[in-house]
Amino acid sequence: MDDVRPRTSLRGRGRAPRVVAGLAVLAVSVPLGACSPPADVTPTTSGTAALERYYEQELVWTACGADHAGTDDDEKLMATVAGAECARLSVPLDYDDPEGDVASVAVLRVPARGESRGPMVINPGGPGGSGVTGAIITAAGLAESPITESFDVVGFDPRGVGATRPAADCYSDEEADAGTVPLGSQGTTVAFTEDDTRAIMEKCAERSGGMKALTHMGTRDTARDMDVLRAALGQDELTYFGQSYGTRLGVVYAEMFPERVRAMLLDGGRDSREGTFESRVNAYAGFQGAFDEMAASCATQESCPLGTDPQQATARFQEIVRPLRDRPVPALETELGFDDAIGAVIAGLYNQAAWPRIIAGITEVTQGRGDEMMQLIYDFSPRSATGQWPNTSEANYAINCMDEDRLTPREGGELRTATYERAPFMDPGVDVTAGARDGCEHWPAEPTLGIPYGQDIDGLPATLVVSITGDPTTPHEGGIRLADSLGSALLTVEGQGHTIVAFGKNACVDEVAAAYLIDLDVPAEGTTCTM
User: Fold this and answer.
1) Would you name the residues annotated as active-site residues?
2) Interval 291-324: pLDDT, tens
3) Strands, E, within 300-442: which ranges?
């Protein structure tokens, strides 16, 4: 999960609350003018005596339950995994005030299937994805891999996410079911006023533990939490596996604690020098590339709703979905509008296996229904059977507000224009540059990530970047540049899709990943696998 999230105009009952795509771009952003990392981002010790109590804590492992779950569906998932155990990690809410308020991080461990070499800490993506459930999914995906034979899989919910407290919370489940709760405007036709963005921030602060809580949900605070977790797990060095947004977290950790890295596998990352504007436009352009590939596949089918000429597929798609701006079609218990349709396609383009569902959904729209499109959106951010929504979108919003530099309204309009130029399948066909305000413009603190980050890190051991040539949201070119910034080995995977290692379905990738994580053997320059 990561970067550009599906989005919806959220009209009507049952509509999933989603951060609109622009705010959810995974790759870290850069100010339009260069900025340097904060002066204190490279701590090499745990610091003051007040911090030592956190570093010296012992985790108390218990059966997993509601206290470690973001939703009741998460709790049910935990119960299906034999041997899984959970704990809570105490960390300072503010590392500059370690004697102040305490935050509590949810942690889950799945034991190694063989003799354990220790923990492998994972992050599955986002920002906003649960590492608790991510550990379960990773362990299942690698169930036959030497990786899970050799390592305990440990996941944690980052700052603001899931069962970690305080958690980002900007609206109730009832509001999500009933109304319009977008958290941003980029990548959609949503128009915001300055009052709108201020009201969003104030409501998030009220529901998430106050203004101070919002200012400590960024990646740098989570990286420091991960170092406390390393110590609490009894490790002098960290073995880490991050996917998508998890690559950002991993690189920031490596920058802050290079001497504490044993191994770092980064799957599906983006250039850590790339700016806000560039990273978002490139992500959308990647989805256009995936759309074109999907359309070419569709064109070989007699009943393709996009026609038999792939060169005309985008124009045909526009003809089908642009009328939804003014005339939504029935979809499940609600309606499918233009932004919903674009969000559904984005959700499906993450995985080539979902292309038939996109094609079926487009066909259905031509027939006046949007059920399959809406189901694609629901499947991406599932509502539990009891009506609980995961807080993925709210956490995505809060984390990016503390990581990404902010655009002015003029720059927001320019970003929409550039997006439609590079990703015309998203173009609504009308001028929507007005109202493209940054949803973070009233956030109570400036971003803390610092750009560029992760450049030429002294003392960092060998790392491994894995990048798919047809990745729709973290383009391969950015993966190449990320590896260059870190001095990392690079495994190129020929194919379509976003991230691959945790699926355990490619013997070539699994062999390279296992050799690195277990024996620290990096692949030779130019090594390639094929999907």
Assistant:
1) 244, 471, 498
2) 999 999 999 999 999 999 999 999 999 999 999 9
3) 329-331, 334-336
